[in-house]
């Protein structure tokens, strides 16, 4: 059977409105033209879709069974058209972590590129860290921007780096400790061993499994007691730690710590994170290639 969408859309519209005349008006067709489409569809299907009772119509048993499938076919076609329009109109789809709007470097990178390329249509899509990588592999997004550990072989500890992805580090930050007012630790930098037995709030999986798991294991290795907070992104962890009067891991990307907290370098936290632009290791669309070249020219990490 040669499938054409138009009669299926007409069938669904008639079933929803209960009238050939009203359906014809909404579809900008004459009633005879609409009737001819339905008759041809019924011929192709091999069963009637409607019973006609003078001026009233009703679905046949076959029509009731077929309606859900026809509706799904119309919706799938509409979705495909929407995807095609998005691909056509949005030349660059950038995936970002939901919380990253609070990272000035991330915002400035995208905004400066938009100024540099004013004609390019860009779509910014918020994602969880794990979803960013999955959507890169599937082609749902062209580029991902996120925070990752720097100079740490997470593959030997947590999970291997995906060989199908390229990474470009834009900037990096030292992991530090944020301390609430009155906390007994005050030396700067805090010497090795100073964090033993100290309760430290740390980030969760909002920044990805590798970063959160490595930090938790690292705190355990130095004898600290890691504590999870109600929200696991770096900015929220600092806010909740201030409320609970706890020391906290400070990734350094979210501006100054909350009022009353101070930053301290700690020899036991000799770690860095980096703001990373990630692309799939395959041919890129023109917009993604232009963005990657722009980022490479601004690389400072």
TrEMBL record:
Domain of life of the source: Bacteria
Residue ranges annotated for the HTH lysR-type domain, each copy included: 1-60
PROSITE patterns (alphabetical): HTH_LYSR
UniProt xrefs under InterPro entries: LysR_HTH_N, LysR_subst-bd, WH-like_DNA-bd_sf, WH_DNA-bd_sf
Keyword Acyltransferase: no
Gene3D superfamilies (alphabetical): Periplasmic binding protein-like II, Winged helix-like DNA-binding domain superfamily/Winged helix DNA-binding domain
Protein keywords: DNA-binding, Transcription, Transcription regulation
Cited Pfam families: HTH_1 (PF00126), LysR_substrate (PF03466)
Residues in the signal sequence: none
PANTHER family listed in its UniProt record: HCA OPERON TRANSCRIPTIONAL ACTIVATOR HCAR (PTHR30346:SF0), TRANSCRIPTIONAL DUAL REGULATOR HCAR-RELATED (PTHR30346)
Similarity remark: Belongs to the LysR transcriptional regulatory family.
Name used for this protein in its record: LysR family transcriptional regulator
Organism: Sphingobium cyanobacteriorum
